[in-house]
Amino acid sequence: MQPFVLPEFYMPYPARLNPHLEGARAHSKQWASTMDMIDVPQHGTVIWDEHDFDSHDYALLCAYTHPDAGAPELDLITDWYVWVFYFDDHFLELFKRTGDIDHAREYLDRLGRFMPATGEITETPENPVERGLEDLWNRTVPQRSAGWRRRFRESTRNLLDESLWELANINEGRVANPIEYVEMRRKVGGAPWSANLVEHSVHAEVPDEIAAKRPMEVLRDCFADAVHLRNDLFSYQREVEEEGELSNGVLVFEKFLGCTTQEAADAVNDLLTSRLHQFEHTALTEVPALFDEHAVDPAGRMETFAYVKGLQDWQSGGHEWHLRSSRYMNEGALGSRGGPELLGGPAGLGTSAARIFSSVLATAPQRTRAFVHQPFERIGPMELPEIPMPFPLRLSPHLDAARDNLVGWCERMGILDGVVWDERRLRGIDLPLCGAGIHPDASAEELDLTSGWLAWGTYGDDYYPVVFGATRDLPAAKALTERFKLFMPVHGEPVPPPHNALETSLDDLWQRTAGPMTTDARQAFRTAIEDMTESWLWELVNQTQNRIPDPIDYVEMRRRTFGSDLTMSLCRLGHGRAVPPEIYRTRVVQAVEHSAIDYACLVNDVFSYRKEIEYEGELHNAVLVVRSFLDVPQERAFEVVADLISARLDEFRHATEVGLPSLFADHDLDSAARETLTGYAEELRNWLAGIVNWHRECLRYTDAELDRLAPSADTPTNAAPATAPAAATPAVAVPVAVPAVAVPLGPTGLGTTASRIHAPAP
C-alpha cells in the first residue's frame, strides 16, 4: 500500500520522446554489461540483475529528458545516467547499509582521480563505478570548453562527496531541517550535474561571462530543486520505508512540520511548484536583462535559450519517466487526479500535453497568492515567540564611549539629516550595543569602526524606502549601486567627490577598513560588498511587482542582503593563512556559516515583522513568506519561523561540535588551522549572542518607537532628506547588513570583523 496519494503536479511543458530510444536501450545495456554492472557481484552482492536494469529503463529517462539529442549524444548521456544510478545503488549496498564511513571516504577519494582537471587519467579502475567513470570522462570532456569542464567536474565531485553527508545522517539517525536539506540535496542529488549534460546534449554552452551570475544560478538551482523534490515524492516508499533512508524531502517536512505523510507530500509538491514558478519568472524577467548588461552576442543568447529550453525538457521528461519506471512509487499515477483521462484524453506515451491544463489550473492559486498581498497591512501589538540563545553574552568595555563617538561620526558624515535620522533615533537604535556584543574583545578603535559599518548599513536601510519606495525608481537605484563601486578602489584609483551621506560614509569606512589589506584581499572585500548591494535591486524589483519571494530564493537572497559574504570574507582575512582556502568551501564550514547567518536573519525577521509589514509595506520577511507559501494564519507562520530558528541553531551547534572535529581529522589539519577554526566558531557564538541581545534591548522594534516614527496624515511619505543628491546621481538606500547589519533593520555582520583588519594578511 502506498503511504500517500501522489499530488497534482505543476507541469506546463509537454513531454516529448527522442526517436532514438531503442538504439539507446540496446547500447546502454551493452555498455553496462561491459562495465560489469549487470549480474556481477560486488563484495558478494549483485547490485543489479538484468531484470532490474531493464525495468528501470534509464534509456527511456534520457529519451524523455533529451528529446532532441542525436543518436550518439543520446547513447553517451544514457551511459552517464546508467553510471550515476549504479553509483547510487552501489554506494547504498556497500556503505549506507553498513554505515562504513571510513571506507566510504576512501572509495570517494579514488573516484576523484578519474576526473582530472587537466591531463590524462593515470589511475587503474578497480570496480564498475571507476571503470564507467573513466570511460565516460574520456568520451565527454575533450569535446567541451575549459569552463564547462570545470563546472562539470565540480558538480560531479559534489554529487559523489556529499554522499558522506547522507551516510553520516543515517549513522546518527538525524533528519535534516528543510533549509539544510534543500541546500545539500542539490549537491548529492546530482541535478546540477544533469544541467551540465543538458548543455552537452543541445550543443550549447552558457557564455562564461554570465554562467556564474545570479539569474543563471537561480535557473540551475530551481531546476535542481524541482528535479529532486519530484524524485523525493516518487521515491519516498522505496527510500524511507524499504531502505531506511533519511534524506527525503517528504520525511523532512513530515518531521519538521509535525504533520501527516500526505500533508508533507502536499507541502513538498507546493515547494516544487514554487521553484518552477521561480524558474519561469527568472527566465522571462531576469535573463534578457542579463544579456544586455553583459553585452552577450546573438550566438551566446541563442545558446543560453537553448539551454533554458533543455532544462524545461528535462523537467517534463523526467516527470514522465517517474510515472513509468519500476524504480518508483507510481501505481495508478497515470490514472490519478490530473491524469489525461480526467479530461477525456489518452493515457499512453506522448500524451502528457493533455495534463497541462489541469496542472496549470490546480496550481494557479499558489501563483496568485505571491502577488496579492496588500502592503501596510494592520498588524498591531503582538507577542513574539521565545528566541533560544544558549551562548553567553559578553560586551566590550568601550561601549559607552562608542555610543558618543558614533553620534559625532554620523554628524560629520551627514547621516543625521533630520528626516531619516536624527540624534534621538540614532541613540534609540543603539548600534554600538550590537557591535559591543558581536565583537566583545574589540579595542576602542575597532568598536568605533564596527559601529560605523552598522550605522552605514542601517541608515541605508531606512533611507532606501524613503528615496525609492514610493517611486519604484529602479534606474536610479541601479545608478547608485554603480556609484558605490567608485568609493571602493582596489588599486588606488582616484575617488570622486561624494554626493550624499551614504557615499561620504562609505568612502571613510573603506579607507579605514580596506586600506591596510593586500590587493587580493581588497578585491575579495569589494566583491562581497558588490554582491550585497546588487541584492538590494532584487528587493526593489519584487517591491515593484508586489511579489512575495519564493521561500528558497528568499532564504538564499536574504544571506546576500544580510551581507554574509562580506562578513565571512572579513573574518577569513583575519585568520591569515592558517586555514587552506579550500577548507572554507567544505560542507562543514558552509554549514557552520549558513546556519549562523540564517538564524540571525530569521531572528531579525521576527522582531522586525510589524515594522516592515505594517509601517514600511515590505514584502521581504520570513513570516510573510511562510504565510503566503503555506497559506496559513499569521500565528502559524510565526510558529514555523520560530521552529526554523531553533532548527538552524541546532544545526549550527551540530556543525561546530560534531562537524568541525570530523573535518579536522578528515583533512589532517595542523594545530594552527584547528585553533583558527575553533576560534572562528567562538566568534560566531559571540556574533549570535550579540545580535539577539541587541534586538531585545534596542528601541528600534518597540511599539512605542514605531508609533512615534509613524508619519502623520500631513507628512509626505516620500520626503527626501536635505542631503539628497541631484536626480542624476540619486542617493541609494541600502537595505543592508554591511558587516554587522541584520538586514533590513538591524546590525548583524559587517563591521563585526572589519575592525580587526588593520594589518595586511600575512
UniProtKB/TrEMBL annotation:
Lyase keyword on record: yes
Top-level lineage group: Bacteria
Molecular function (Gene Ontology), one example: terpene synthase activity
EC number from the UniProt entry: 4.2.3.-
UniProt keyword rRNA-binding, yes or no: no
InterPro entries: Isoprenoid_synthase_dom_sf, Terpene_cyclase-like_2
Coiled coil: none
Cofactor(s) for this UniProt protein: Mg(2+)
Family annotation (SUPFAM superfamilies): Terpenoid synthases
Group of enzyme by EC: lyase
UniProt-listed Pfam families: Terpene_syn_C_2
Keywords: Lyase, Magnesium, Metal-binding
Family: Belongs to the terpene synthase family.
Protein name from the UniProt record: Terpene synthase
